[in-house]
Design goal:
The complex is a heterodimer of chains A (177) and B (192). With 177 residues, chain A is mainly α. Chain A folds into two domains: 98 residues, no CATH class; 70 residues. Chain B is globular and about 60 Å long. The longest helix of chain B is centred in the middle third of the chain and has 39 residues. In chain B, 51% of the residues are buried. With 192 residues, chain B is mainly α. Classes of the chains: A mainly alpha (177), B mainly alpha (192). Chains A and B meet through helix 1, helix 3, helix 4, helix 5 and helix 6 of A and helix 1, helix 2, helix 3, helix 4 and helix 5 of B.
Chain lengths: 177, 192
């Protein structure tokens, strides 16, 4: 029981204090689950992270869910997700309601206009770091074929994202070592 | 200005869209933005750009998982609490359930090598999505702000993200506060 509470505490704290999503959560979850509390052995944790990063969907939620399930069964999955996602979601809903209530105010309209370049640079930064980590491990021509092919499919052909993803998966299964 | 309030959308559509995001968002967090934008703004046209902007701003200024926050806000906007709950169930549990299935018995049939190959192959496609998203958003900002203000702000943002390497939420919160303070307004008393 104590271990279960520690697990929920770790999930809650990470969900409440990690910003930016995705990879930002991994080191914190690792600290809580393998070091501060011995919920799961480190090697098992990293095996979960390995599989988790290969699957779609929010990364932190996948890790919390899998650690919870492996250690505590179904309650681990359900309560882990509630504690991990809950606070962030409630905060987001509160802020969202506040924004929507005041959306006619010129000040807030200024915010949405002037924040746009910051969103662009934030996305660009993620793109840059994804590019550098991928180029380090992948043959450059494979990279450019998948990148160019996907770009062609979505920008020129105007296909939805799923087409590019499926193209990439097929290419990977056939051509990647 | 468009009305924001709930033209009722069937719950099933909400679930289908959330499931689509859950299955297509590789790379985590911010890299899912293009897929989300494409689904809700470009394809379903449930939101205008401005509303989408509100969602992104709110989720980035706060701690917690961005994708789940975005989808819950979208669900809430369309169907109130039920919509938010349904979105949370779909986005919160699809990935973990897939992962648990993979870890508990699929790993016998799907070796890690194949899973890793797929996850690698998908990244350049995600980058293409990000590139096209950036292209659209850049032009939108250019039109909205004019090139001087857009490039000026891009420069500030570049400095904050790449040189100072501040935390995303700190940058967003500071930008919001600065804009709230310097924009003239009739009404006083915003949060500080």
């Amino acid at each position: 029981m104590m271990l279960f509470i520690q697990f929920l505490f770790g999930a809650l704290m990470t969900g409440l204090t990690a910003f930016g999503g995705g990879v930002a959560f991994v080191p914190m979850l690792e600290a809580f689950f393998t070091q501060i509390f011995a919920i799961i052995p480190a090697d098992q944790f990293f095996e979960i992270v390995g599989y988790a990063s290969a699957l779609p969907g929010p990364l932190g939620a996948k890790i919390v869910g899998a650690v919870g399930y492996e250690t505590f069964g179904l309650p681990g999955l359900i309560f882990g997700e509630l504690f991990f996602d809950g606070p962030g979601i409630i905060l987001a809903l509160l802020l969202y309601r506040l924004l929507m209530k005041n959306r006619q105010q010129p000040k807030l309209q200024a915010v949405t206009q002037f924040i746009q370049p910051f969103i662009i640079v934030m996305v660009a930064k993620v793109a840059v770091s994804l590019t550098t980590t991928t180029i380090a491990t992948m043959e450059i021509w494979h990279f450019f074929i998948i990148f160019g092919g996907s770009l062609f499919l979505i920008m020129k052909k105007k296909y939805p994202p799923i087409v590019a993803i499926i193209f990439a998966i097929c290419y990977g299964l056939v051509f990647l070592p | 200005m468009k009305q924001n309030n709930q033209e009722q959308v069937p719950l099933l559509q909400l679930v289908v869209s959330a499931l689509k995001i859950a299955l297509l968002s590789f790379g985590g967090g911010v890299s899912a933005l293009p897929v989300i934008y494409d689904e809700y703004v470009a394809r379903r046209k449930w939101f205008d750009d401005e509303t989408f902007q509100y969602f992104v701003t709110a989720s980035n200024a706060l701690p917690g998982p961005i994708i789940s926050q975005l989808l819950v806000m979208i669900g809430y906007n369309k169907r109130g609490r039920i919509g938010a709950g349904v979105s949370f169930l779909v986005i919160g549990f699809t990935g973990p359930i897939l992962l648990i299935l993979l870890l508990t018995f699929l790993y016998k049939f799907v070796p890690l090598a194949i899973v890793e190959r797929i996850s690698q192959a998908v990244i350049p496609a995600v980058l293409a999505l990000l590139a096209s998203f950036l292209w659209q958003q850049y032009h939108k900002a250019q039109k909205m702000l004019g090139w001087q203000r857009n490039w000026g702000l891009l420069g500030v943002a570049f400095f904050a993200f790449f040189i100072l390497e501040w935390n995303i939420a700190i940058i967003f919160i500071s930008v919001i506060l600065v804009i709230l303070v310097i924009t003239p307004n009739q009404k006083r008393g915003e949060s500080s």
